Amino acid sequence: MAGSGREPTRPLRRPTLMRLATLVLGAVLTGGAVAPYYPQPTAVASCVGPSLIDVEHLTLERGTSVTVEGSPFVDGCNDTGSCSVGCGGRCDDPEPVEPQEDIHLELVQGGRAWPLGNVDADDDGRASWTFVVPEDADLGRARLVADGVRPVQVRIS
After folding, report:
1. 154 burial level (CB within 10 Å; 0-12, 13-18, 19+)
2. Among residues 7, 48, 94, 138, which one has the fewest Cβ atoms lying within 10 Å of its Cβ?
């Protein structure tokens, strides 16, 4: 390449290549040896959301008194603590939970809805509603709907 002003490149010599490979290998091994001594991110579990208890295949008779329970109606997630490993490892207490208040339950059928009550959860996150099934509900399918809970199919008789 006459006149280009560039010198031809030479391949790396074997000793230079070996030194470079040794440095890369040393860096990788050092990083692997030191990593366990730095705080690691903790695993995170997801809390179970609230649900109504024992209501599958529930039949509600118009005009009768019924009690429906649900759990856990809490704010916060108390299912994990976190610990770090290595030097200075420590464990944190689980996140505190607070029982929810004013949890609304209603009966829904077609385009109609009947409020069945509002309750506060107890210290364990358990909520309990006692109500009279509306006399003017139609016979057949309906849904119980509580705050933060997937609607549950019930039958009105």
Report:
1. buried
2. 7
